[in-house]
């Protein structure tokens, strides 16, 4: 990406950046960020703020099991990730071929061996590969398949529009793709950068992020869902360095190839 290109050229031109977890790991590992802990960070959940003070999460994607309510009843829907291994779901579950963060969350919560064993079993279930979680949600709504790995906020949006979809709240974990905000180590406008980070992580700033259709990271901001996120077994996917990220992607490809990318 642009930051990696600038780093290799010895020039970094950003003051503040918001990225995904893997990109944040690259920035932190390469010492391209400076420590700054905004006031709101003290109430953020573990896994949603850097214990070393380099980043704070600003919005999230919850990886959940979505289902078409015309094809699957609430009583018959899987209750756990392991339930997807039931023979009746073979060929009936869709995923994005780059769901690396979801797999990393399983490794972090279950342990590497158990996650790998599960991944190989799931790979034998005839996964329906589709590129993009928005597309998967749309095709799930249309009934192309009964189950899909989707984002919770997309399911909530579709439900509010009357679409025949719902999502499972009982999986453990519910992996959460965090989107950290960081200040450049050599920011030219460091005071302005800190004020911006302070605002965007505050309750007021997080309310604006919610208006844009995102899940705000602030734990005290109500989402207006039928379920309270505090009741979910959320796991913020780790902000890891580029070497570890490359290893996770390699392991993912070995397990799901040639089906996954």
Structure commentary:
The chain has 261 residues and is an alpha/beta fold. The chain has 2 domains: 111 residues, Periplasmic binding protein-like II (D-Maltodextrin-Binding Protein, domain 2, 3-Layer(aba) Sandwich); 125 residues, 3-Layer(aba) Sandwich (D-Maltodextrin-Binding Protein, domain 2), CATH 3.40.190.10. Helix content is 36%, strand content 18%. The chain has 9 helices and 10 strands. Strands 1, 2, 3, 4, 5, 6, 7, 8, 9 and 10 form a 10-stranded mixed β-sheet that branches. The radius of gyration is 19 Å and the shape is globular. It starts with a helix and ends in a 5-residue tail after the last helix.
Task: Note the main attributes of this structure.
2 domains; 10 strands; 261 residues; globular; D-Maltodextrin-Binding Protein, domain 2; 9 helices; alpha/beta
């Amino acid at each position: 990406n642009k930051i990696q290109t600038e780093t290799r050229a010895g020039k970094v031109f950003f003051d503040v950046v918001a990225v995904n977890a893997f990109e944040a790991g690259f920035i932190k590992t390469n010492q391209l960020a400076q420590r700054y802990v905004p006031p709101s960070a003290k109430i953020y959940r573990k896994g949603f703020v850097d214990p070393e003070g380099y980043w704070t999460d600003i919005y999230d994607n919850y990886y959940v099991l979505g289902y078409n309510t015309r094809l699957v009843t609430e009583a018959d829907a899987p209750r756990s990730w392991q339930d997807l291994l039931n023979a009746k779901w073979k060929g009936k579950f869709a995923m994005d071929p780059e769901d690396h963060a979801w797999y990393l969350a399983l490794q972090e919560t279950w342990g590497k061996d158990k996650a790998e064993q599960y991944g190989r079993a799931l790979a034998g279930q005839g996964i329906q590969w589709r590129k993009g979680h928005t597309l998967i949600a749309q095709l799930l709504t249309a009934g192309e398949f009964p189950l899909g790995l989707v984002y919770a906020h997309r399911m909530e949006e579709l439900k509010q529009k009357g679409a025949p979809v719902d999502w499972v709240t009982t999986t453990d974990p519910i992996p959460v793709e965090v989107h950290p905000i960081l200040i450049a180590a050599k920011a030219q406008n460091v005071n302005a950068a800190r004020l911006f980070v302070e605002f965007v992580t505050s309750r007021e700033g997080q309310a604006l992020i919610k208006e844009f259709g995102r899940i705000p990271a602030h734990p005290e901001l109500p989402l207006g869902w039928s379920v309270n996120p505090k009741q979910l077994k959320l796991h913020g996917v780790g902000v890891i360095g580029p070497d570890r990220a490359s290893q996770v992607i390699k392991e993912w490809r070995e397990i799901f190839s040639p089906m996954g990318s």
